[in-house]
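We were asked to recover a plausible sequence for a given structure. The inputs and outputs are reproduced exactly as logged, with field labels preserved.

PROBLEM: sequence recovery
POSITIONS: 202
GIVEN STRUCTURE:
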C-alpha cells in the first residue's frame, strides 16, 4: 500500500570502486570477517561496454551483501582526497569492549594497525585504512544500548579523547570492568604512546 508517512529504511550496504579487488577482499575478510557471496568477472567481449571488469558482493552476517566492490581498470588514486567531497568513513559496531579490543589485538598480530583510537563518550572507536585508504571505524556503544547512547549524544558536549589501545587492553586484562576502562580512557589515562595524526582521519 502506498502511504504518505515517511518510512525509515535501515542502511543495508555500501559500494566501493577499486583497482585491486583481491587485496580489498582479503582485507575485509581479515578485519571484519566478510565472506564473498558472489564474485564475477566481466567477459572479455563486454569490456568497454560496462565501467568495471569484476565485482564482488560480501557480507559478515545473514544479509546477502553488506559491501559491493567493483574493480575498475586503470582507476587512479586520489592524491588530494582529503580536500574532496567523499564518504568520510563507514563504521561497524561490536557488542562489547572485550570484542572490540580483542579484534584490535587480533589485527595487530596480523600487522594491521589502526590510524587512531578515541573514546568519544557515547562510544569507543578504533579507525583503520583499507588498501584503498578508505577509513573504516570499529566501535562499541559505551552504554550497551542504543536508547541511552542516543540520549547521551543529544545532551552531552562532544568528546574526543585519544587513547592507546594496548593500554586499554592491559587494563581489561588486569581485571578492570569495561565501564571502568571507558571512564579511565575518557579521563585521558591511556594516552597514545605517539601522537596520532588527525589529518589521516579527516
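RECOVERED SEQUENCE:
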Amino acid at each position: 500500500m502506498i502511504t504518505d508517512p515517511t518510512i525509515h529504511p535501515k542502511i543495508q550496504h555500501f559500494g566501493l570502486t577499486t583497482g585491486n579487488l583481491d587485496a580489498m577482499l582479503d582485507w575485509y575478510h581479515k578485519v571484519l570477517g566478510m565472506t564473498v557471496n558472489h564474485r564475477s568477472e566481466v567477459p572479455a567481449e563486454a569490456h568497454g561496454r560496462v565501467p568495471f571488469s569484476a565485482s564482488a558482493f560480501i557480507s559478515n552476517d545473514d544479509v546477502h551483501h553488506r559491501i559491493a566492490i567493483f574493480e575498475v581498470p586503470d582507476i587512479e588514486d586520489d592524491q588530494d582526497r582529503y580536500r574532496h567531497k567523499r564518504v568520510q568513513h563507514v563504521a561497524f559496531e561490536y557488542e562489547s569492549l572485550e570484542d572490540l579490543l580483542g579484534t584490535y589485538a587480533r589485527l595487530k598480530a596480523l600487522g594491521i594497525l589502526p590510524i587512531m583510537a578515541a573514546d568519544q563518550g557515547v562510544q569507543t572507536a578504533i579507525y583503520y585504512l583499507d588498501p584503498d585508504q578508505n577509513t573504516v571505524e570499529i566501535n562499541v556503544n559505551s552504554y550497551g544500548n542504543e536508547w541511552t547512547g542516543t540520549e547521551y549524544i543529544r545532551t552531552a558536549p562532544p568528546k574526543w579523547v585519544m587513547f592507546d589501545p594496548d593500554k586499554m587492553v592491559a587494563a581489561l586484562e588486569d581485571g578492570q570492568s569495561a565501564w571502568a576502562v571507558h571512564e579511565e580512557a575518557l579521563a585521558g589515562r591511556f594516552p597514545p604512546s605517539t601522537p596520532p595524526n588527525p589529518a589521516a582521519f579527516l
